[in-house]
Amino acid sequence: xxNLLFGTCTAFLFFACDKVKVDVKNNDKADxxxxxxWKPVDSAAATKAWMEYATPGEMHKMLAKSDGTWSxxxxxxxxxxxxxxxSKSEATNxxxxxxxxxxxxxxxxFMGMPFEGMSxxxxxxxxxxxxxxxIDNMGTGIMHMEGxxxxxxKSIDFKGKMTDPSRPGKDCDVREVYTFNDDGHxxxxxxxxxxxxxxxxxxxEIKFTKK
Length: 211
Known about the structure:
By secondary structure, the chain is of the alpha+beta class.
């Protein structure tokens, strides 16, 4: 069944994407056309690549160690040098699709209001990067991030973008450092732009302890 699936995907890609024309916009917003030549890949090599892409590895096993319920102690700063705000939360992690992705559900409070959020984290075998999305009940957008594994610090260094509601239609750069202190403790640090200066500062830190 797997060979049939990968063979179908390979055939579709090979015949549908023989040559690709991509429309792009230049800085003057004038239309131009760039032609990207497709490099043929034989079916055996394509099937092998798809199998490697779809097979969970060591990074997925590392994520799986975080499965379970965690209590969180959160510290937030609304502006650089501002007064810290403390709160508590709970996170439940669970791997899905045979260990390929980890879904995390978070519950807590923010300024006296109930807070709920959900993330999906994975390790993309092709990109050799961690990828993550985040949604919560305090917005209507989706935050996207990609990160590299830092073996010396045992952390994932995420970078991405999220909606900046104070600047309609604009995104802002965000950064996260997710540190695996040990099997029972993790730390999440989030950085974003100061609303007054635009300079990066630490907006949040959550210390997780496994229950």
